[in-house]
Amino acid sequence: MSDPAIQNYIPWEWSVTPTNARADVTCPPPSAILGTFAVVNVIVGVLSIVCGHRRVTKKLTCKMFGHKNSTSWTWMWIVIVGLQLGANALVAKIIKLTPGYHQGFRTWQLTLFFTARPRVSWIFGLPFSHAANICTERDGRKRSWRPGELEYRRLHGRREVDDEKDYAWRSFALSQFIAEIVLQFITAYTMGTTVAFAARRGHYILGNLDFLGHRAHMMYSAALYWLCGQSLLLAVGGIAAILASVLEEEIAKKMHTIMTIVGIAMLPLSWMATWLFWVGYVRLAGDL
Q1: Is 61 left (phi over 0), alpha (psi -120 to 50) or beta?
Q2: Domain boundaries, the chain
Q3: What stretches pass through the bilayer (predicted)?
Q4: What pTM, to 2 d.p., does this model score?
Q5: How far apart are CA 254 and CA 87, in angstroms?
Q6: What number is the average pLDDT over the span 28-33?
């Protein structure tokens, strides 16, 4: 950020600034930056749906994962969160080690800031999984059993009946959803810092703001929007995820439905809020 006045509206003390701003170098406009975010989001979302299918996962991992009725989602979310934070930390470290930038920030600060970026894999995963589950249940009801076969299977445990069903995206969707819940809790640090900064300085009152302040107002409003709307959903989603991992199969299915509903509600409250947050930040920062 080349304009020192912008720092008056940035909620954190650190910044990524060049040591020697050159007049002959033109930074990409905000529309190009946000467009890149959008394209990357869509590509990652589509690839995640393809690779998240149970059979594709099984082939890609040489049959190590992707088994029917797998419960790997109860711990796979840890891997997803680790990969997200690791990628953010790697990018932050590369920026820090790149010559030509002031070293006024720490790697962990930029890592947490990047966590507030919008993600779409979990948005695609839940509806795909829910639709596939409905089709699987419907096909299971239509299946014709030999006389006495269904009763025999039920007498020897409902699990044997369920083993015939293929919930192709369930493990992917649940692990992505739980990972997103955790990442949203981490995002609360950035959003909370922004709201506290703006509230202390009266930046939520438009009459107190100049031209740059009006640009920053979208970022402040998005952070407040996220904080107010997301708190309850994070609590409900977290509880549903925990219950789904410890309860019996039938109750876990109901928890899966609740998680889908929470995920749909999170779309305007979480994903849209983070997008607006970044739109406001990019507009304020100008030359990044």
Answers
A1: alpha
A2: 28-140+159-285
A3: 32-52, 73-95, 177-199, 219-246, 258-278
A4: 0.77
A5: 34
A6: 76
